[in-house]
């Protein structure tokens, strides 16, 4: 389509592992759509954090394992995918049924033009961002809404064709802001991970002793808790975005 793109491609890589497994006993008392999983060990090739996403309570799940930008995402046969799930969940005897393994790339890109002659693009074709904020699908739906009523008006002869120029004019700034906001939210994570000790720990034991320090009634513990509080407060930027959600 040759649409002009601004921003950066391949800012990180991830692996999706879709699986079925009844995890009711672990989550029923603390239900949520997303669970952050910490994995710190010498033999881990990821970034030390994964996300467990609930697809169907509490039997269908997506484990998202993060890799640093430029790092090759390994080809994962089913047995290794199962081992990764057990490892990240800390449940060595779990019997998950893996139904899909898909690598994907994180981008921070938006098109400055959403149309090339008679072809109009919506959704990820014109704005690609990390899933933080979770705005990809609804932005795509609102692109479609914006475009479809205009197409209908032009095709029915109720409006001049240049009404369609307003599609790019109205949607490009939204795509740009959604992309930039998601990338900005991603930039907040290193401070949070730093505060809870993930990059510094090279083993689960080391991480456990750092967390013991966080909980300790000491000056060091107090400082660590203040760092965590400040990092968590900054996450408001990611989670309170009503205007952006409504596009
Ligand atoms: C891990 C992850 C979590 C996410 N979480 C959220 C969330 O919580 N909330 C949210 O709103 N968004 C989320 N998103 C983003 C959301 O999934 C996308 O923004 C959305 O799916 C984009 O829709 P789309 O129709 O533009 O593109 P897609 O969903 O990618 O659809 C494009 C389709 O075109 C097909 N296709 C490609 N090439 C061809 C071809 N040559 N011929 C025929 N078909 C073709 C593809 O197979 C695909 O089915 C997430 C994304 C990821 C990766």
From TrEMBL:
It comes from the Bacteria. Keywords: FAD, Flavoprotein, Monooxygenase, Oxidoreductase. One of its GO terms (molecular function) is oxidoreductase activity, acting on paired donors, with incorporation or reduction of molecular oxygen, NAD(P)H as one donor, and incorporation of one atom of oxygen. InterPro entries: FAD-bd, FAD/NAD-bd_sf, RIFMO-like. Residues 4-181 form the FAD-binding domain. SUPFAM superfamilies: FAD/NAD(P)-binding domain (SSF51905). This is Monooxygenase, FAD-binding. It comes from Granulicella sibirica. The lineage of its organism: Bacteria, Pseudomonadati, Acidobacteriota, Terriglobia, Terriglobales.
């Amino acid at each position: 389509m040759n649409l002009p793109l601004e921003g950066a491609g391949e800012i990180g890589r991830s692996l999706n592992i879709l699986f079925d497994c009844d995890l009711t006993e672990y989550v029923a008392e603390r239900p949520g759509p997303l669970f952050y999983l910490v994995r710190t060990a010498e033999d881990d090739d990821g970034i030390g954090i994964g996300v467990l996403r609930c697809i169907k309570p509490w039997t269908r799940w997506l484990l998202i394992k993060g890799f640093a930008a430029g790092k090759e995402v390994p080809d994962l046969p089913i047995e290794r995918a199962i081992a990764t799930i057990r490892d990240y969940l800390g449940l060595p005897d779990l019997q998950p049924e893996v139904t899909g393994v898909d690598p994907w790339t994180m981008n921070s890109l938006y098109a400055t033009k959403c149309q090339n002659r008679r072809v109009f693009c919506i959704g990820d074709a014109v704005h690609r961002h990390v899933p933080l904020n979770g705005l990809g699908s609804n932005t795509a739906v609102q692109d479609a809404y914006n475009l479809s009523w205009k197409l209908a008006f032009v095709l029915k002869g109720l409006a001049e064709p240049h009404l369609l120029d307003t599609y790019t004019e109205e949607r490009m700034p939204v795509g740009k802001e959604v992309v930039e906001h998601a990338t900005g939210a991603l930039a907040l994570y290193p401070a949070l991970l730093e505060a809870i000790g993930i990059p510094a720990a090279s083993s689960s034991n080391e991480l456990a002793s750092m967390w013991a320090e966080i909980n300790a009634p000491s000056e060091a513990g107090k400082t660590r808790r203040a760092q965590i509080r400040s990092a968590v407060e900054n996450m408001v930027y990611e989670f309170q975005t009503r205007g952006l959600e409504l596009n």
